[in-house]
Amino acid sequence: MKTVTKLIIVLMLAYLLTMNQSTQNQIASAQSSHRIYLPTVSNIVPTWAYQETFDGDPSSPSQSLLPDDLDFSVTHRTVPGENFRVFNSYPADHGNNCDGPNPNISPLPQHAVTTSHFSNSTNPDPGFFICKNHMMSSMGDVEAYSVTAFWPRQEFDFSQGGTLEFDVNINDNHHRSWFEIMITPRSELKVGAAHEDLPIDETYPKDRIIFEFMNNKRYIQVGTGAIDPLGKIVEQSDGAYWSVMYPNDPANVDRRIRRPMHIKIEQNQITWSIQKADGTFDDFSVAVPGGLPFTRGLVVFKTHAYTPNKDGNRDMFTFHWDNIRFSGPVVGRYESFEANDVIYLQENGNRQIGEKQSVSINLPHIGPNPVLFGQVHNPMRGQVLLSVNGRPNIVVNPYDYNPGTCSSSGWKSFQLPIDPAWLKVGNNTFTWTIGPRPGCADQYLWNGFSIMGLEVQFDLP
Fold this sequence. Notes:
This protein is mostly beta strands.
């Protein structure tokens, strides 16, 4: 072979080897880029702005282990002349030694609890307690319709999208007791709210996102601009019962099983996912036409009990909560200090105009932006008067009165920003007075009102 020919062959081989190496490098580079790209946003664990795991394994149902960054409230449907009494006891899950609730044990391990209007965050209703590293909220059939509520004293900011997670039992055959999550701006908080067609005293706030697991189905409502039943922009339920979609899910009958819930809030869509028995999730998504009406609010966990003894139910009054957390920046934190008593300026008939009653709230310090929060019973416009530490009376109004009237029946939530100069470190006196009867009030209404759940709130950094 001639030298020139050999040289050409050598050069061609070198060229082919170079091209092959270059191709291999490109493939490796592409594969390397692909491996880096694989972890998607959905797999990234959110940065939790709030998280509560309810750690504690006491030898008996414990309220001392309840987190002090939660607020607690219980509202019972109005009973004339009986606003403040201790109701009959009912069975709550877990025995006196925290056993259960094991459906294979008879009788079911439970213990008796009582409820009343006197409870607050300092002294929560006995239906709130901790056993086996999770928290219970329970309510039996005590006065036809009752609502329990607890919520972190911190707002959930989902302006850039947000994730809310929690674990809870979903057992079937519990049709007249159900749980609900309500997200609403702190300035609109209603602790005893329910659907307008249910026999409780107040309906959902003007701005709300409702997640309800009732009759074994998910339900989502988004509303703005008017209290329920008005203002709805989204209202949608699951197409089938969970127990029908997944009849072999052991969580349908065993309350010890708490299913992880994952709620993803986006500007134009909300997705509520429940973990199935195989570890995967079932998604229920709804579109939000026009986008979310608000992007920050308190997350209120509620238990509804509507004559729950009906349909043969005698012992299923308890929901089991764990691993509550939400994403977003840490915003809207506050602390609260409760009154030492309730105000009862009512009876089965009129009370005298000008009658007074006082309660005290001890404040260890004066924080920024003080707000007075509570519930008022049967208020008439202009008749609920309050003096703080001897100052002139101011009028306290609930968020809303009955449509077309200047009165409101039953228990209504209220908020009242107050001047920090009115408060002092130590004991503060809040004196309530029955004011003049408004001329617009119906004649059959009795003068007087009651106050419960009174607290002073201060913002935290």
